[in-house]
Amino acid sequence: MHYRSREVVQVRSAYDCDVLVIGGGIVGLSTAYAVTRAVPGTRVTVLEKEQGPARHQTGRNSGVIHSGVYYRPGSLKARYAVRGAAEMVKFCAEYDIPHAVTGKLIVATEKAELPRLHALVQRGRENGIPVRELGPAQIIEAEPEVRGLAAIHVGTTGVCDYGAVARQLGEASGADIRYGADVVRIDRRPDLGAAVRTADGTIVRGRVLVNCAGLHCDETARLAGDDPEMRIVPFRGEYFTLARPELVRGLVYPVPDPAFPFLGVHLTRGIDGSVHVGPNAVPALAREGYGWGVVRPRELGATLSWPGSWRIARRHWRYGAGELRRSVSKAAFTEAVRRLLPAVTPDDLLPAAAGVRAQAVLRDGTLVDDFLIKEGPRTVHVLNAPSPAATASLPIGREVARRALAALAAS
User: How much is the pTM?
Assistant: First the structure.
């Protein structure tokens, strides 16, 4: 590791906490919650650069409690999503957080999609998820305005308010949560722990560091002296709200392309009764680039200098061109929605807040398709936790906490 003695903070023997978590999204707060549940009395501090929790991926998704039907059997995503969905419903019920188990339809609208739909049936069963196959008449019975050749109904899918979940996790953890704490320097010493300096000059010292920085997790890993061997490439997901929410009863998804980690434009009736439409997936010009007008040259330069970014572009340019077309053309976006919901018109689609997916990409252009957690000396890095991380946040938090507590015990 390399230390810049004039720039970094010097670690001293006095500690402010046992476990120091960077990132106040749902994964960071779940980790804090899991640490204090596992070993009561453990001192946990969470540093979040925003003025409140869940301001990025957690608070800008569609609020779906995913079943786990899409994910490769045996993968972390499959295991944690299936387990996490049940635990999330229980957590919401325990703390009176708005939620509902609605089920969802995954609908094939073309013959070419039927083999992939049937493969999802098998995958769902391998993951222990109840899946029911539907014909065209049954689709209309469930969703009168939706059309398709065949569909599957996944009964364990639901919706909730993840922002409220994150706030409750933070409160129940008993952690010292510091908002407006933007980390700018880290001095991590294997024999001592980590000292972190925030933008206002505050220094926080912990025995073990946990990196749950989401869109900035790779940068945070490098600040700590570790090579994450990946780069976060941000993809913006653009949403609309349906002006006629009565057109959709519940959750309706297309059959996803297995070559991509994105689920395609779908229809989601949220816990508040509104219907979100989207998202697409286009490159963002900043880590927090929620619109085309948000450009941060340093961050964009880092994305463009990563060899994996160019390899993705060469490999998947046709897919990307379609996503860009839907981003700049409301008519094209409407056309994509009408595959599932023929009655929708451009006037039905009202602009809504966008989100940005923190997608880990390897140097060879591989899109990391599973959760990725790595360790360094006295450090745990969560390096890929996009959807379904909110659904899986309780199991993810326990796994990260287990590793952090093991490092703490060994120190």
Answer: 0.93
